[in-house]
Amino acid sequence: MKWSEVCIHTTQEAVEPVSHIMHEAGAGGVVIEDPDDLNRDWETKYGEIYELSADDYPEEGVLLKAYLPANSFLAEAVSGIKEAVSQLPVHNIDIGRNSMTVSEVNEEDWATAWKKYYKPVKISDHITITPSWEDYKKIQDNELVIELDPGMAFGTGTHPTTVLCVQSLERHLVKGQVVVDVGTGSGVLSIAAAKLGASYVDALDLDDVAVNSASLNVELNHVQDVVNVKQSNLLDKVNYSPDLIVANILAEVIVQMTEDAFVALKPGGKLITSGIIQTKRNMVKGALQSAGFEINEIVEMEDWLAVVAKKPE
């Protein structure tokens, strides 16, 4: 089968929304080539994972490569991606150069193209993320391994926003708590919460592809007795009071849901949010405080940050 590689040169800030647009267009996988991967602070802390070549990365900006079937619908899909990406500045998202190329690849080349970037990565004190096809063996007795199959997922679980959320979950999740994961994507945060001791997790996403992907990854990690994947727009279907809400989504969407999150949480409950670029820091912080939250901590990685907020008891 023939596939077409659609490559967009954009910015770090636009990685999440552009990836989502590509998946909405039917992408069978997305490769993110970010030169900052060559110098991740957390790689040295948690151990060297694998060799990266600077030749595979752009000198500036980020390359996102999506893979679409080379069929009669390709031109329409490419046009839709262009239009959707061009609208992102309306939401104050910097799309940078925003140049696009389309090239044809064989299915075998496609598999090699994205799998070579995806190896086991230890992203926190206890959690390692590994692709499902790797035969990874635990290095530490207390290590928690999450297997992901990113074939139709929203990333591989190693983007700074995901890492910040996982590390925050390690610090703030108490065993036995009930968790809601808003915009679950591949399901990685829900799986992490389950492995860290949550008694119940609702993994919510509006996108059909994400719901299917998260369901498969939940089963792959044998946490289906704890994690319930649902299709939902933000917190619309949460009719109970969770102990903790985690949301790795766009800053603009976080701002929209802060009041609903405050109402939903138990007194003393916490909201962990990421997907926030530095320029949106004050916007998100202000929305959380206006809703009634106390800011517990703000943690940073590269140009991204995560905020942990608490509902007063």
Level-1 CATH class name of the largest domain: Alpha Beta
Strand content: 25-35%
Head-to-tail CA distance between termini: 58 Å
- Number of continuous helical runs: 9
Question: Could you give the order of the helices and strands?
Answer: EHEHEHEHEEEHEHEHEEHEHEE
Can you tell me the residue ranges where pLDDT is under 50 for at least 5 consecutive residues? 42-52
Q: Name the CATH architecture of the largest domain.
A: 3-Layer(aba) Sandwich
CATH homologous superfamily descriptor of the largest domain: Vaccinia Virus protein VP39
Q: Into how many domains do the coordinates divide? A: 2
CATH topology of the largest domain: the name is Rossmann fold
* Largest beta-sheet characterization: 7 strands, mixed
Mean pLDDT, all residues: 85
Radius of gyration, in angstroms, nearest whole number: 19 Å
DSSP E strands, number: 14
In spatial order, strands of the major sheet run: 10-9-8-11-12-14-13
| Overall 3D form | globular
**Proportion in helices:** 25-40%
Topology:
Blueprint: E1 2-10, H1 15-24, E2 30-33, H2 41-46, E3 62-69, H3 74-86, E4 99-106, H4 107-115, E5 121-122, E6 127-131, E7 144-148, H5 160-172, E8 178-182, H6 188-195, E9 200-205, H7 208-220, E10 227-231, E11 244-248, H8 251-264, E12 270-277, H9 281-291, E13 294-301, E14 304-310
Parallel strand pairs: 6-7, 8-9, 8-11, 9-10, 11-12
Antiparallel strand pairs: 1-3, 1-4, 2-3, 5-6, 12-14, 13-14
Helix pairs in contact: 5-6, 8-9
Could you explain how this protein is built, in words?
With 313 residues, the protein is an alpha/beta fold. The chain folds into two domains: 2-117, Alpha-Beta Plaits; 150-310, Rossmann fold (3-Layer(aba) Sandwich), CATH 3.40.50. Helix content is 31%, strand content 27%. It contains nine helices and 14 strands. Strand 9 (200-205), helix 7 and strand 10 form a beta-alpha-beta unit. Mean pLDDT is 85; it is low at 42-52.
